[in-house]
Amino acid sequence: ITFIFVTHDQSEAIAVADRIAVMNAGRIEQIATPTDLYYRPKTPFVAGFFGENNLLPGEILTSGSQAMARTAIGDFAVPDGQKVTDGAACVVAVRPEIVGIASTAETGGANGRSVPGKVSDVLFGGPQTRLKFVPDSATDLSIICLVPSQDVAGPYAAGEPAFLRIPDNYAVVST
């Protein structure tokens, strides 16, 4: 049986729906499963609609068949098949619970990146702690990390140097 249920409660929509249509100003932005909307938003609006997201402004650079999104913290691959235009503005969305933080540099290799910077704020929230991170390469940018509180004990205090870790497969590029 197919039915349409209209709600403004995102948690409720995720819990009961097999597919969700996200609307913005009377237009459909994206129709997808709850998991796809949450982890693979197609537009900056959808990325900001379901919870908090780090939205990194960037520019599309193409070279042959490969396209990259250049941001202040590095380049992110544009998925194969995604239509983009060289030089176009873009946004790279990264969920705060996907972002990791470490006190020492780790090479990202093919699976991610390690970005040097400083912790600017620490907010304990029970099971999760919210860290604000400012990259050395873009001091006007703050990136939010939500990490398990038991992982935060010790080195993470405001002003402390740290390294942000972002797995490439969770960065979503939209134009």
Description of the molecule:
Among the domains are: 1-51, no CATH class; 100-170, RNA polymerase II/Efflux pump adaptor protein, barrel-sandwich hybrid domain (OB fold (Dihydrolipoamide Acetyltransferase, E2P)), CATH 2.40.50. β3 (54-63) and β4 form a beta hairpin. The strands form 3 sheets. A 5-stranded antiparallel β-sheet has the order 5-4-3-6-12. A 5-stranded antiparallel β-sheet has the order 7-11-8-9-10, with no helix packed on it. By secondary structure, it is mainly beta. It has helices spanning 10-16, 34-39, 44-49, and strands at 20-24, 27-32, 54-63, 66-71, 74-77, 89-94, 100-102, 112-125, 128-135, 143-148, 161-167, 172-174.
How would you summarize this macromolecular structure in one to three sentences?
The chain is mainly β and about 180 residues long. It has helices spanning about 10-15, 35-40, 45-50, and strands at about 20-25, 25-30, 55-65, 65-70, 75, 90-95, 100, 110-125, 130-135, 145-150, 160-165, 170-175. The protein has three helices and twelve strands; from the N terminus they run αββααββββββββββ.
